What we know:
By secondary structure, the protein is of the alpha+beta class. It folds into 2 domains: 13-204; 216-361, Reverse transcriptase/Diguanylate cyclase domain (Alpha-Beta Plaits), CATH 3.30.70. It contains 12 helices and 5 strands. The protein has a 5-stranded mixed β-sheet, with helices on both faces. The longest helix has 40 residues, at 167-206. The chain is elongated, with a radius of gyration of 31 Å. The chain starts with 12 loop residues before the first helix and ends with a strand. Mean pLDDT is 87; it is low at 1-12.
Amino acid sequence: MIELDKKRPLIHDEQFKIDCLEENYKKLKVLPLVIIFFNGLFLLQYRFAPGREVLSIFLKNYIYLFFIALVISLFFRLFLPLFHLIKETNIQEIIYLSYMFLMFIYCIALTVLDQENSLDFTAYSIGLFTLAFLLRIETWKFVSLSIAGFIIYLALYFFIMPQQLHIENVLPILMITILNVYLVFSREKTRQEMFLLKNKLQDSAIKDPLTKLYNRRYMIEFLNKQIALYKRYGTKSSVILLDIDFFKKVNDMLGHGIGDDVLKEFSDILLEEIRDTDMACRYGGEEFVLVLSDTDKERAFIIAERIRVLIENHLFASVLWTITTSIGLVDIQQNDMVEEILKEADENLYRAKESGRNKTVV
Length: 362
């Protein structure tokens, strides 16, 4: 069983929101076209072959609703590619929800008009079902929109309909709403669990199970990207190779369990001292690699020294002596390959150890 690291959760809410927006965008490319098509047909029907609604005192209201929904959907579909280019995810979400809620209000208004001659809740059901299952939406937001829709239904009924409101005009709406809220809750819970599982599996493939740092394979991929960035934009990055001094002494004298604890504490210190744009990797055994993006050799040396001093002054649990680290540092050059960079960093690390340990060599 893969366990989730509670200190550094694998699910990123922002990425989950982006995935939801992408899914909504794909569906909203089609939905307005469907609404335009059917509302166009309804308008043509009322013009050339009207049904029983022609006898309704609300005939013009039907026509106005169809026309308004058609126009709103047409404009929304035309500008949808521009909305998709908006980088702020919250604004995108508001735009998508606003359109869907307007279409829900359109369905609510049709349902109120239908109450004149029959207890027909088809339009309300379709509107709420579309909001629930075509749009990826958090449960609390769907509940809020459902409550708002119910209030709008009551307000429109009292404002438009001449007859009094009865329980048969309300009970089906409540039942439809409760059912859809339950279905949305179940669906989103399942999707969250699937998203969590997906990220756990991805994480297990690129992270060291003990320290939760990235593994060597991912580090090489990340380093290749930094080399490509330097070749294209001149953005310098640096690589820091760290080795825990006399780590074998910890394992031999205190046991491998304490050795594992030291590795995890060491990793936590590294993570606290780097940025989100940097990368920390367990290179193998007691060796670690930091790739500092957009950081030249001079700034990287300052960071390396700060980490070295922090390690030296840190009291590792169950270890009675001072733990230190030796560091080799190198920056990315124009024609560097990953193997050359790591080899040079390893040579600098070797020099640091040969000259007394607990130091940084560039």
